[in-house]
Design brief:
The protein is an all-alpha fold. It has one domain. The model has no long low-confidence stretch (mean pLDDT 95).
């Protein structure tokens, strides 16, 4: 696989989608954590889950902003993509563990989103490296 530049169509498309999606979801988790939890399939919410959701929202907002800010620089975009893929892989593990709890629906929804995102991020990182 040849090394891609940051403006390669496949790399740029994934990076834009990932960056914009993270910013949008980060804002949603900060502004309306209970709604975001419901969309993700969680049925139990309380002060602790709302706080953790807002923390995750800040994380996604930062990751998305860094990705969007790195679109024109291959090295910076590679670093952002590796960070995103790592976060997505961690999310996939967390959602897989949720499959063994009362929050199985959330685990299923989250795993269905996080695992492909992690794998695509790894693929884009390999294209950039």
């Amino acid at each position: 696989m040849s090394r891609a530049e940051a403006d390669a169509p496949d790399v740029r498309t994934w990076s834009l989608v990932s960056g914009l999606g993270r910013v949008a979801f980060g804002v949603a988790m900060l502004a309306a954590p209970e709604v975001a939890l419901g969309v993700m399939g969680f049925t139990e919410t309380g002060p602790a889950t709302v706080t953790v959701t807002r923390l995750a929202g800040i994380r996604d907002l930062v990751l998305g902003g860094v990705t969007l800010g790195a679109l024109s620089d291959r090295e910076r975009l590679l670093n952002a993509t590796v960070a995103n893929a790592t976060a997505d892989a961690g999310d996939a593990i967390a959602f897989a563990l949720a499959l063994r709890t009362r929050e199985r629906s959330a685990g299923s929804y989250g795993l269905a989103a996080a695992l492909p995102a992690a794998l695509t991020g790894i693929w884009v990182a390999r294209r950039l490296s």
